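Supplementary Text 2. Reproducibility record for the structural model of the 464-residue chain.

All settings were left at their defaults, and a single model was retained for analysis rather than an ensemble. We include the record here because the model underlies the residue-level annotations in Supplementary Table 4.
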Amino acid sequence: MENTTIEFNEVDYIVPTKTFKIEFSYLSKQGFPFVKEFLLKALYISPLSKFELSSFFGFNQRELAAAIEEPISKGEIAYSDEGKLFLTPLAKGYFSSLDDKPMVEKPQTRSASVSFELVGFNKVKNQHQNWHSGLRLKVNHEKQSLSEQHARAMFTKHFQQLVQNDELGGFKTHDNSLPSLYSVDKVTSKKTIAHRIKRRFEIDLDNQVKPLDLRQEYVNDEAVVQEILNETDNFRLSNNLNSITSAWDAFEDMSISRFIHDTSIDFRSLLAEMVAGSYDKPYELLLGPLYGKQPLSVIENHLKQLKPLKNNQKAQELSWYAANTRYWGMSEGFNTAKVILVNYSNKGNSKNYDLKLYLPCDEHPNIESQAGKVWKQKLGNLEFCEGIRNGLFDGSVEILVLEGEFAAVSYHLAMPDISPVHIPLGFLTTDQKLIANVVSVVNQFMSDSVSHDKPNLIGKFQTK
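Retained model, structure tokens:
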């Protein structure tokens, strides 16, 4: 258990990436026509006179003259002072051992579509990924403007590794040997795409966050790691335990507070309780945002058990209140969770619930018009979404609740002495009293206002 690490959050970083068409030539060993091959083989063994060669091949004088004309003109065979034909050093270089076939390296031309991310200029896969649900890394302007030159240099430097990894398509070479690059003839920038780097934040039982390690994935990993660290550390957190404590008090919750101290979290006890199970408690512990793997698995188990509504029953709302942190929703895991929640909203021809996602919006003079544009850029699709002001408990709490069925609560703890990103911990309950308590707190927030003209519920987003 001492080497145990716990995944507590996930953030995707999006690296602007350019796809290039690269036209190049490579050297590939090729054999010779049948007659020339055996002519070279015979002379490799020993110099021979024209008479000896004619006898060996059964050629007349005209046929022999035709056979030796091309290799003589190319400087591959020559006459000795004794009048015998012999192989020049050029032709001897075609052989690697006595039994080998003579082979010559010849330039072959081809082109490939290759993508390089613009931070460390690592070769990445060509497939297009969306720009949403992730934090976009900054790109050096010099690298971006000179991207074709950088692509040429990296392609040249790592050509054989790219071939070995089969990233340029198959090469037909003698004895499956690796080809060598002859020249890079033309590099053309085609389009900019998004490359996604997934970081799963893990912590050990002594509150040490596992460092980011990309050595297995990228040749030039240092530049990418540094930019990810810059993007994360530039937005250091402010401790939000006061807001979290207010939430614990409002929910009368004892599930998580006993594991939290001013500067540390008792992950050892938390994990021990999760392993043992919460059979004697009215909740299950959750570790991560509600779209994280462990919380989503627990939520999905309860969605599977929902009984479809009768024809005359009105579908209730499955309400998902997002946390107002820079990192919430910045993962493909969020999109996966949303799809799962939508899929479970119907069971056959029956309705289970209507999903509604409430997204917190920071104060802005034109919050009604600006908030939708901000979230549209972050998440893309805003179906099922409405805006709320600031979020629950200063945006520190995430909730998913289906009244009468279950409530899931995640406290997004900001503890900068431990982690550069939030540590979401929480619970799921089917206890009707606890569910009613959560619903009451949420309803109170939704009906309140910051002031008489600033209701917490903003409503549907304007995105135009």
